[in-house]
């Protein structure tokens, strides 16, 4: 009989309303890249978010190269990553807010001390730390239990690659079967699925017309056991996961 001991939270638009802020900064750099390659298309923050939600900037640039069939050198990649990170962190330190309802749920989890809590993100570690510090969520994640696919791994990657989940589980000393992941995007949910980690989906930050589409995708395509529209549903979601895992 399985038992959940560990909860792994995505950060961007799962714990912190950071995606729109980050994509404002990313759009400027994406447009600079497109202009340098002679491409007429331009992105806004929302249109970039729609195309590349759940990816870190390195993954986004890789997708941009594939979409428009051009290449960037390693040094160009690194230079853009360095510039993007500074822009995004500056914005987050000024404007980041927690997702509605997340603070009471984390308070309750932290007080119970029944679960190990960790953040598992595609974003650079400094960006994740800036987000959770500005919103006061850092107090829930002790002992450096914050993991970044862009920073923590020997070779940087991005979800949907499951590598960061597997790395986090190994570092925390837990099996994937005793964890539950909380994700809002296809790429993040797919990473959890590939790591064979039970999944709770979250669609709260999406616009009303997108929520049902994302709900269906997380549930049907990515196999989420429960999909939340608001964080107040978290106790029910966790109960559903624990009931499903107990049957295994």
UniProtKB/TrEMBL annotation:
Residues in the signal sequence: none
InterPro entries on file: CbbY-like (IPR044999), HAD-like_sf (IPR036412), HAD-SF_hydro_IA (IPR006439), HAD_sf (IPR023214), PGP-like_dom2 (IPR023198)
GO MF terms, alphabetically ordered: phosphatase activity
Cross-referenced CDD domains: HAD_BPGM-like
Protein name per the record: Phosphoglycolate phosphatase
Native source organism of the sequence: Mytilinidion resinicola
